[in-house]
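2 proteins. here.
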Amino acid sequence: MSTSPYMLPEKARHQDAPSHGLSINDMFPTAIPHSAGATTAVLQPLTAKMKTEHVNFYYGKFQALHDISLEFASNKVTALIGPSGCGKSTFLRTLNRINETLRDTRLEGSITLDGENILDKDVTEIRRRIGMVFQRPNPFPKSIYDNIIYGPKINGMLKGKNAAEIVEKSLRRAALWDEAKDKLHESAYALSGGQQQRLCIARALAVDPEMLLLDEPCSALDPIATAKIEDLLVGLKSQCTIVIVTHNMQQAARVADTTGFFLLGRLIEHAKTDIIFKNPSKKETEDYITGRFG
């Protein structure tokens, strides 16, 4: 049996691979009138909320990410896809410095939020501005109310604010208010799996993050709960910039404005989602999308 080029021994896996990163202005050119009554148009630049430039990441001596440069447009949803072990979750965790909690790791390159290097900022501030939701729901062993109010409380955001209003606003933003409003002081564990995941999203939203990172948030959920999460993400992008890691290519096609394809620790291609799925420019992307591997 021949060996797949995507399953080479570890040392051979990290050969130079083409990177196809486009700027957000390449992907989202917005025409606006040049002058009153004129038919010509100029391009309105879109703002990059976050940029990564030449990011390399190491677990000890093992290099998990190779030269990742990527832009995330404000108020857009970016999906990261690729086979298991390709580095997409590792990359996601670098965006709010969660990987710093792991021993013997090293990050090279720059990650900027609104033009400022996040590595130069207080890590607590960064994690407030960039919320994170993990693969499996992880509510605190507290009431629904206390789960939501925990973040604002430890971040000193309750001064002059009504805690009850924050709880209601957060649950409404997470499309959970109608289901939870009559049991706010009951244990969060009494909620279903899908409701617990929306509670975790509400908890992240309670501190008004500028970005929301989600690492396969629907992998443990049934189709009905998954649909609710997807509808929620589409609605939330008007309020914050969203990055989602998913194994579900149909999910990426449904919710994402742009999609990045990762393979063997490299960003192979990043483009508008419909281009990635209908007319990818890289053979590796086409092979993965069409099910030849992965």
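next one coming up
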Amino acid sequence: MLARPGHGRYTGDPNIGVTSWEGDSWRRGGAPVWGWISYDPQLGLIYFGTGNPGPYNTEQRPGENKWTNSVLARRPGDGALVWAYQFTPHDSWDFDSNAEMILVDMVVGGRMRRVLVHFDKNGFAYTLDRVTGELLVAEPFANVTWAKGINKRTGMPIVDTTKTTGVSRGNVQGICPSLEGGKSPASPSAYSPRTGLFYTATNNLCMNFEASPVTRIPGTPYIGATTPYFAGPGGYMGAFIAWDAARGRRVWKIEEKFPVWSGSVVTAGDVVFYGTLDGWFKAGDAKSGRQLWKFKVGSGVVGAPISFRGPDGKQYIAVYAGIGGDWFLLSGDVRSDDPADVRPPADFAPELARHTSQGGIVWIFGL
């Protein structure tokens, strides 16, 4: 065991994933692993995030609910847990932590460290020592109201108790980020060793949250909450940002009308690419954020662009355009009799359907 209590908060108790839940609620409570896995061959460790606990009504699952909303470092040979860090204990807001864990060596606090950088749905960007799980940096990269900050000594969030949820709390207003997260776990970030910066899509969405009692029925949703969204401060719903993970600060920001849901890629020529829900593929200067180019690709971009060298020796950028996932039902050509159309239109982005359509096209551009 490498992590110290207060940082990784792994005590060595192999049953903590059961004892941190009341009764047998752990049997129904999560946490799924549905995101990315990173591997450090020198340390011999894999790193992965876990999902939110269930149900959303927190009063049905007292306790910290480990190891939901966490990053776990395990030895792939025998699966042993080396260290773990829970970003949002006893999650009240659906801030699952399945987003990518980016492994980088960088100077933090004047010392070269092997770090893990993670942009969590809860709106905070974390820089951890990936050897020990020690918290080095934790600062908000999106608008955050549910917490006042992260205690750097304990690693625990300083929760604003007026934003905690549960049936007895009624309809809790003005929680930011929304349960879509400050960043979607499906929107992988990019890192440039040239600039030392991370580039990521973000959401500027807030929500009201009203929990309700729920009973688990196998094969059916196990949620127990109504969570309408609205745009955060400034009125825009998303942004693409450059982030300094060593200092915990945003370097630049490009505001977008709708949530930004695509992945990103940055080149050795200091050009960063990302896509938007309203169907634009954009290139920006990785140092300043200045827009260099954009192209209308017809459908919303929720995939991740890639860079590759072709057989002709030239560099290309490819991106898949095709609105999908949570955004599929907001596209402009979903029929009213479509069996997939099971939800009412989202009232937080009523104009999105005007700008995009269903479709799946791979676009390739010469750099």
